[in-house]
Amino acid sequence: MKKRTDTANTGRKAVTDEGDRVQLVLFVVGRTPNSQRAIENLRILEERNLGISLQTEIVDVQSDPERARREQVIAVPSLIRKGNGDERRVVGDLSDITSVIKELNLH
Question: Is the whole-model pTM more than 0.90?
């Protein structure tokens, strides 16, 4: 695979294999206000030019409780980052986008 070097909003260089994707899975419960804010903030995060390829998924734990159990989700909303053998989690409505990017190592 070809390597690609990008400079994201942070000015740092992010080197990824083309085709590699970081998977973000957001676990919510129904249409609660916190869940809706988390979904909106995930969309904002997707729109940022981070220099990496994101694949996002939203899972409603009411509709798929087994998935939440398999992923060991104990609080919602929860955002799980998977990719390159690494997994990181953030709990909450994702309102502090800068902190979410830092905690999930998306820069």
Answer: no
